[in-house]
């Protein structure tokens, strides 16, 4: 593959960045029920409810923040919008490891969804 034009380098860099952040989500999400057990959720029914709450809050905040990040990407550029979710997402995932209860975990992961909303979805919402 020849890197004779800047758009190809940008495309490869974006593909690598998106792959790394997607792997983060793909590897981390299956362990949330185990993390809930460590946080003191011992009843299996309550564990399922909290797992549903945590997964739902992440996706809901992704959906709510995506249009905002898409509009911001149009104004300030795509590069900051690739760096933002990578850095802030890493920080919120690290913060999630220090939570002491299921509600705290849900709150930190809601913040994760708000800060890392995926800007490429917002372009579909604009006329």
Describe this structure in words.
With 127 residues, the protein is mainly α. The chain has one domain (6-124). The chain is built from five helices and no strands. The protein has helices spanning 6-28, 32-38, 44-76, 78-96, 102-115. The protein is elongated, with a radius of gyration of 17 Å. The termini are far apart.
Task: Show the helix and strand layout.
Elements: H1 6-28, H2 32-38, H3 44-76, H4 78-96, H5 102-115
Helix pairs in contact: 1-4, 2-3, 3-4, 3-5, 4-5
Short description:
The protein has about 130 residues and is mainly α.
Number of strands: 0
Largest sheet: none
Secondary-structure-based class equals mainly alpha
Silhouette: elongated
Distance between the termini: 35 Å
**Rg value:** 17 Å
Order of helices and strands: HHHHH
Mean pLDDT score, rounded? 79
Helix content range of the residues, please?
over 70%
**Unreliable segments (pLDDT under 50, ≥5 consecutive)?**
119-127
What percent strand? under 5%
Number of DSSP helices?
5
Oligomer: single chain
The number of distinct structural domains comes to: 1
């Amino acid at each position: 593959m020849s890197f004779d034009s800047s758009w190809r380098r940008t495309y490869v860099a974006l593909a690598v960045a998106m792959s790394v952040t997607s792997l983060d989500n793909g590897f981390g999400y299956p362990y949330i029920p185990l993390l809930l057990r460590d946080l003191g959720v011992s009843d299996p029914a309550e564990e399922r409810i909290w797992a549903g709450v945590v997964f739902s809050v992440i996706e809901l905040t992704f959906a709510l923040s995506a249009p905002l990040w898409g509009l911001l990407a149009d104004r300030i550029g795509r590069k900051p919008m690739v760096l933002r979710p990578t850095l802030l997402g890493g920080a919120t995932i690290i913060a999630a490891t220090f939570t002491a209860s299921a509600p705290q975990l849900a709150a930190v992961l809601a913040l994760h969804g708000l800060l890392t909303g995926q800007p490429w979805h917002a372009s579909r919402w604009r006329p």
